[in-house]
Amino acid sequence: MDKYLLGIDLGGTNLRIAVVSLEGKLIEEVNVKTESDKGPHHVIDNMIKICEGLLQKRNIEAIGIGAPGPLDSKRGIILNPPNLPGWDEVPLALMLEKALEKKVVLDNDANAAALAEATIGVGKGKESVFYMTISTGIGGGYVYRNQLIQGANFCAGEVGNMMINQDGPMHHILNIGSLESLASGTAVHRLGKEKLGLTGHAGEVFTLAMNGQQEAKEIVDTMLTYLAKGISNIVHTIDPHMIVLGGGVMQSKEYIMPNLIEKVNDYLYPQIRNRIQIECASLGTKAGVIGAALLAQQVSEGDDNESLHGV
Amino acid sequence: MKAYMVFDIGGTYIKYAVMDDKSKKLECGKIPTPKEGLDIFLDQITEKVNHYSNSFDIQGIALSSPGAVDVETGFVGGASAIPFIHGVYMTEKLKERTGLEVSVENDANCAALAEGWLGAAKETDFYICIVIGTGIGGGVVINQSILRGATLHGGEFGYMIMGESCKSPLQSTWSKVASTNSLVEEVEMRKSLVKGTLDGEEIFRLAEAGDSIANECITNLYKKLAMGIYNLKYILDPQKILIGGGISKRPDVIEGINNELAQLKDDISTLDITVEPCKFENDANLIGALFHFLNQK
User: Fold this and answer.
1) Letter string b/e over residues B249-269, b meaning 16 or more CB atoms within 10 A of that residue's CB
2) Is the pLDDT of residue B5 over 60?
């Protein structure tokens, strides 16, 4: 009987669960509303029911979950993510292991997407890929020789924390001048509200900029300048074979990419200029669920069959 | 006796050593780096190799070199204070002259490898080594090997942009604002002294004697170093971050950087980020070059 992986992409709005082949091919997907407002127990019960259904049909080797941070990947615990209100120190991996009797790994959603984009998406075949997601926040993941680099404290790729401009605006929970406070969708949204009185999401600012509205162009220009600085820091540190950009803000990629690439090159050491490949993510909303499944494979390859989270 | 001929090519001197396979120095010395050009340089290296071949069974030549080194082809690209070594297939040239196996590795990478082999990062798979001097250089080691990067510029975090100036960003790189050189320049400027009056050691002496400008500039240096280190931590999250270069020998420098790092914790970035000093001083490049030679096959 062929072996498969199960991926779970736990988002604030959508819960996707999919059977994925060992090569990363999506075989069968269930997509429902998370209903996170009904609390963790409701969501987890629902998750277990869907998994049980899928487990009956196929031989599943291991289960991987991609979830919003902050979380503790080592112990498989969801800490207290802003996108999952009411979730506080939930030992999700252990709960699923007990219910489903399979090995379960948990990592953040950006790492899951990074692994998928680097191994079967736009970065396939590249030795090292740095993935960045730019949406409400900024996250990322680094994949080197097809292995996700998690880091000593599971913080590798958490580049939203990078300090880019110490004269920048205060962020309620991050350091002054963090990349996330300057270059996320939230940052664009805030400036759109302040300067243009816009009430919708960041996409409105990008649409106006695309149509040549001067103030909107300036807001986007400033955001891209900071993003370019952040990317140049990453390039000067790891010199990846490809930078992959995903997340909601990249829906405006036609406007973002040419401007961003020019700015990144301005910030690069002359000998590296125009030699760094920057691409848009290619897997869309499927990256999270496929990546989550692939995470399970990475970890199960390295360990024996015992529970990772058992006490 | 079996031994290896190891050279550390620097702007002022070429240091050399005859080493056994554990990096024990059997002979050593240094010669001024020639100014004349590549041929004289190759002659001098060859002469040393021939000289020591009389008393040792030399197994090969290991070089530590500035520049963007392609370890596969032995090509030394990039730029440094020794212009003639760049744009040259260095290993091929020396192999032609000596008949020996030759390896070459970038000097900052050598320093990083030395720490992983026998120094402060022994038995650590994943670490960053930051060398602070004229500028900031270093190396990233993943799974015990150097992260070279797509264009051989992995570990060139000295080029990270630190300042606000968007017009000339390359004037405010980490190297330019947080190196020993930048400290010296800042103190000289604030004291209206002629360039070249002071050096790093003198500034630390002034600070200890209570000089407020020296103290402020040193604190400022720690802050800038901490900011870059913090960013590196959140890009890669290595097991260890080591600090090398002249000033890392001072315990107060390591402590000063760690104090500034502690102050950067916030609600989300709650990691305790600390740095440790490198173990090796002047011999780091020689030891790392030998390690590279022994492990390149």
Assistant:
1) eeeebbebbbebbeebeeebb
2) yes
Contact state of A152 with B237 under an 8 Å Cβ cutoff: yes
Q: Please choose, from the candidates B105, B113, B152, the residue with its C-alpha nearest in 3D space to the C-alpha of residue B131.
A: B113
Q: Which two tokens stand for residue B206?
A: 């002034």
If we measure between CA atoms, which residue out of B244, B243, B297 comes closest to residue B274? B243
State residue B164's pLDDT score: 64
- Burial of A301 from C-beta contacts in 10 A (0-12 / 13-18 / 19+): exposed
A-chain CB neighbours of B232 within 8 Å are 237
Q: Give mean pLDDT, residues A264-275.
A: 92
Reported as a single tens digit per residue, the pLDDT across B125-173 is 999 999 998 889 999 999 989 999 999 899 999 999 887 655 566 678 9
| Cis omega (within 30 of 0) for bond into A70 | yes
Q: Which two tokens stand for residue A300?
A: 């199960």
Residue from B120, B98, B111 nearest B15 by CA: B111
Q: Is A206 on the interface with B (CB under 8 A)?
A: no
List the one residue out of A231, A233, A255 whose CA is nearest residue A244: A231
DSSP A159: G
Would you call A238 and B149 a contact, using CB atoms and an 8 Å cutoff?
yes
Closest residue of chain A to B264, computed from CA coordinates = A175
Indicate the residue type of A272: I
Asked whether residue B61 carries a pLDDT value surpassing 70, the answer given is yes
Backbone angles phi, psi at B81, to 5 degrees: -70, -10
Residue A267 and residue A253: Cα distance in Å, rounded? 20
- Out of B166, B169, B235, whose CB is closest to A238? B235
- The pLDDT assigned to B168 comes to 63
Contact B236 A151 (CB under 8 A): yes
With CA atoms as reference, the chain B residue closest to A266 would be B169
B88 touches chain A (CB under 8 A): no
CA distance A180 to A175: 10
For every residue of A240-278, DSSP letters joined together read: -SEEEEESGGGGGHHHHHHHHHHHHHHTS-GGGTT---E
Confidence of residue B288 (pLDDT cuts 50, 70, 90): very high
For the cut 60, the answer to whether the pLDDT of residue A310 exceeds it is no
pLDDT value of residue A172: 56
Q: What is the value of pTM for the model shown?
A: 0.92
Across all residues in chain A, what is the average pLDDT?
92
How many CA atoms are closer than 13 Å to the CA of B91, on its beta-carbon side? 20
In degrees, rounded to 5, the angle at the alpha carbon of residue B185 between the alpha carbons of residues B180 and B191 is: 130
Average pLDDT over residues A238-243: 98
The interface predicted TM-score (ipTM) is 0.91
Yes or no: say if B3 and B20 are a contact pair by the CB < 8 Å rule. Answer: yes
Q: Which residues pair with B62 in a beta bridge?
A: B6, B103
What number of residues does chain A have? 311
- CA A106/CA A293 separation, integer angstroms: 10
Q: How far apart are CA B173 and CA B175, in angstroms?
A: 5
Beta-carbon separation of A174 and B267 below 8 A:
yes
B157–chain A Cβ distance below 8 A for any pair: yes
B151–A266 CB contact, under 8 Å = no
Least confident of A20-34, A120-134, A161-175: A161-175
- pLDDT for A101 beyond 50: yes
